[in-house]
């Protein structure tokens, strides 16, 4: 027959609280189904794992039997015939699962009808009854030792009663042996009567023991279930508390997100102000228009240029994508409209825009689209003459600064050349030595000035003019300006006038810090006749 299915784990401290499994002496073929609990998670399929029944019978014989009917986390085992031989309680029975084992299972073998009569020896049968009682005592002791903290003093009391019973049974055994000897020598009837009485007494005491045992186990189960209910309530309360803490934490995270967004917005706004301030920290920024590259032509919508006498178009001006540039006009009437053509890094035409008007009081700011590397600028001049090349300026940044020439235009500018020649025409040196000395002095001053001005120019130069070598190439290309300087030096003039000119020039150059220059700007007291030099610019 099939026994009630059970669930086992590997904790080994977890007792089996259900009633012990029971089989009867003389029966065969009982089948037990076992399911592994959560602690067996490493064995998800028992078909590939060795499973073995290990048990110690009431008379202390060891039984081992492999289990073959197994799948997933469940297996079935049929008890061997030798487990039905002796009545009593199996002191130890468990299952070996791979390299682990289950907690113990309690198994009771009940007495079969007529088994004692058929044994053939009343003394041997009586000893069997005593051994059965001893197995109950030993099983109870094991159970009490395992669950000492959970089962009350009734177990100890019950154990004492059973021990008393065993002791009395031993005395009865001794008396039975004496009676048996008397019976052998006298009559079988008197012994049979005594034996029946002892059997009756034993059955009565055994029944009382089983009743006490079942009551004690029921009491334990009730108290254990109550503890489980309390534990479940505590767990539910703790889970609710944890869920609330998680919810509060998520709310705090959402608040942190909004705070972080607010901080980022403030940072972006401050950065924009700092970028604007950085762009406006210098009074003059580099003019990206090189006048000498300007031609009298205009650009069509496809970027192709054609000759046009009353308009001009710049060469390719390097720009940075996603940056803002300012276009300004100085000292003339307003232009009609400015046109910007956009080109990629290979100078291939991308598109053309028709921007708004530019006036002396209202500059125009353009935003360079992504992936754009060059622009070309083509405005209509006020009088349709194609002139006013030196009156336009394109510079990096969203604000306009004072007008300036591109560094490549300074050496070839007519007014600069005329001023140099006129000054040198008035120079007068009586000897070559004085000329050499003045040249040497001038070269030294020029080097000092060049080192300062070149450093300043490079700091604000566009990407196409960011090294001293490139700046030197730009000056070398302006051979006419360099030759004019050399020609002027060879001429003789009045020494007094040269000295006066030198003093005048020195008074026109004033070193000044950025803070002081900014203060003059704010007060509107910048002197246009003085060249302000900002060493730390």
From TrEMBL:
Residues 253-280 form a coiled coil. Keywords: Coiled coil. This is BppU N-terminal domain-containing protein.
């Amino acid at each position: 027959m099939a026994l009630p299915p059970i669930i086992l784990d590997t904790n080994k401290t977890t007792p089996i609280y259900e009633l012990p499994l029971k089989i009867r002496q003389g029966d065969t073929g009982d089948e037990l189904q076992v399911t592994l609990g959560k602690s067996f998670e490493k064995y998800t399929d028992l078909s590939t794992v060795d499973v073995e029944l290990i048990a110690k019978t009431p008379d202390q014989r060891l039984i081992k039997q492999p289990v073959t009917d197994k799948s997933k986390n469940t297996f079935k085992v049929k008890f061997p015939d030798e487990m039905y031989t002796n009545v009593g309680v199996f002191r130890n029975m468990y299952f070996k699962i791979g390299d682990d084992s289950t907690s113990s299972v309690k198994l009771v073998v009940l007495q079969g009808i007529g088994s004692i009569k058929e044994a053939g020896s009343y003394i041997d049968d009586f000893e069997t009854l005593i051994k059965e009682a001893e197995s109950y005592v030993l099983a109870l002791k094991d159970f009490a030792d395992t669950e000492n903290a959970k089962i009350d003093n009734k177990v100890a009391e019950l154990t004492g009663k059973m021990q008393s019973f065993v002791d009395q049974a031993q005395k009865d055994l001794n008396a039975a042996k004496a009676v048996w000897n008397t019976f052998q020598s006298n009559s079988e009837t008197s012994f049979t009567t005594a034996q029946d009485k002892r059997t009756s007494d034993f059955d009565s005491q055994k029944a009382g023991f089983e009743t006490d045992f079942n009551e004690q186990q029921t009491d334990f189960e009730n108290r254990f279930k109550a503890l489980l209910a309390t534990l479940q309530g505590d767990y539910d309360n703790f889970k609710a508390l944890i869920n609330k803490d998680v919810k509060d934490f998520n709310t705090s995270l959402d608040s942190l997100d909004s705070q972080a967004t607010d901080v980022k917005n403030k940072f972006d706004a401050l950065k924009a102000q700092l970028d604007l301030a950085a762009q406006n920290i210098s009074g003059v920024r580099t003019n990206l228009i090189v006048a000498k590259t300007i031609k009298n032509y205009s650009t069509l919508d496809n970027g192709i240029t054609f000759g046009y006498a009353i308009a001009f178009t710049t060469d390719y001006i390097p720009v940075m994508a996603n940056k803002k540039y300012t276009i300004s006009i100085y000292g003339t009437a307003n232009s009609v409209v400015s046109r910007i053509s956009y080109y990629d890094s290979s100078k291939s035409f991308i598109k053309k825009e028709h921007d708004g008007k530019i006036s002396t009081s209202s500059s125009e700011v353009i935003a360079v689209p992504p992936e754009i590397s060059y622009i070309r600028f083509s405005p209509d001049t006020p009088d349709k003459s194609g002139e006013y090349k030196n009156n336009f300026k394109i510079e990096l940044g969203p604000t306009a600064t004072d007008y300036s020439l591109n560094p490549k235009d300074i050496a070839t500018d007519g007014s600069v050349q005329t001023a140099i020649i006129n000054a040198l025409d008035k120079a007068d040196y009586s000897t070559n030595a004085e000329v050499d000395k003045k040249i040497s002095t001038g070269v030294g001053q020029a080097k000092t000035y060049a080192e300062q001005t070149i450093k300043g120019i490079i700091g604000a130069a566009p990407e196409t003019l960011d090294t001293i070598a490139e700046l030197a190439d730009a000056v070398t290309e302006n051979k006419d300006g360099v030759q004019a300087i050399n020609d002027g030096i060879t001429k003789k003039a009045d020494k007094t006038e040269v000295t006066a000119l030198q003093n005048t020039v020195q008074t026109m150059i004033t070193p000044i810090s950025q803070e002081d220059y900014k203060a003059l700007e704010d007060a509107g007291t910048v002197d246009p006749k003085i060249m302000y030099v900002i060493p730390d610019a």
